[in-house]
Amino acid sequence: MKVMITLGPTREPIDSVRFITNASSGKMGASLAEEALSRGHEVTIVAGPVNINLPDSARIYSIDTTDKMINTVLKELERGYDILISTAAISDYSPEFHYGKISSRKEELTIRLKQNPKLTEWVRRSYPDLFIVAFKAEYDISDKELINRGHSKLVNEDLNLVVANDIKKNKFGSDQTDAYIIKPNKDKIYINKCTKRKLSTRIWDIIEDMLNENQ
User: Fold this and answer.
1) Per-residue pLDDT tens digits for 185-215
2) What per-residue confidence (pLDDT) applies to 23?
3) Do the Cβ atoms of 31 and 197 come closer than 8 Å?
4) Cα–Cα 20 to 30 A to 97, which of 62, 82, 192, 214?
């Protein structure tokens, strides 16, 4: 199957030299790509700015901003794909851009933010039959609320699977994590703390089982 995986952060420029971003390492997406390749799938990666090794046998696009991430994904999907796995920590907001460098002499600075579009919503509008997996990161909430928010994302964005975790317990860049894998009927599978490669194996087992059930 043809698989596209997004990974890493995006950067949203404040001015010509500064930007806002997050600490996503891209390790989860890279692990999913490695697992997909080991199963014989054809893999394309759309990566934000990361400092990790990505598999040589994948097609790789490097981007920085949310707009570039969305445009690259939509353009590449025209080549025909079976699965999109969106692990990228895409910025929810972007600042109003100021050309040049904002003076550092200002004692206070107000930055206006506007909401960015959701990648998976744009993709679903154009590709109603694509199997879409998305990740949902939250911070310091109960397991019940984490599951509810993950399921709400799945329903609202018409996804096939959501992987939800709490980044207070599983910090960006760590090699281990735990997660809830949430299906459309709200069935949930809890994966206790393990390596990201082991979690990738479980996610791929579930994806392939779901696709086989639908054949």
Assistant:
1) 889 999 999 999 999 999 999 999 999 987 6
2) 87
3) yes
4) 62
Amino acid at 14: I
Contacts of 149 (CB under 8 A, 6+ apart): 136, 138, 141, 164
Q: How far apart are CA 99 and CA 213, in angstroms?
A: 52
pLDDT digits (tens, 9 = 90+) for 32-63: 999 999 999 999 999 999 999 999 999 999 99
CB-count burial class (<10 Å; 0-12, 13-18, 19+) for 115:
exposed
pLDDT for position 107: 86
Q: Per the structure block, which two tokens stand in for 74?
A: 């939509």
What does the H/E/C string look like for the chain? CEEEEEECECCEECECCCEECCCCCCHHHHHHHHHHHHCCCEEEEEECCCCCCCCCCCEEEECCCHHHHHHHHHHHHCCCCCEEEECCECCCEEECCECCCCCCCCCCCCCCEEECCCHHHHHHHHCCCCEEEEEEEECCCCHHHHHHHHHHHHHHCCCCEEEEEECCCCCCCCCEEEEEEECCCCCEEEEEEEEHHHHHHHHHHHHHHHHHHCC
Q: What's the CATH code, domain 2-213?
A: 3.40.50.10300
Token pair, residue 167, equals 């980044």
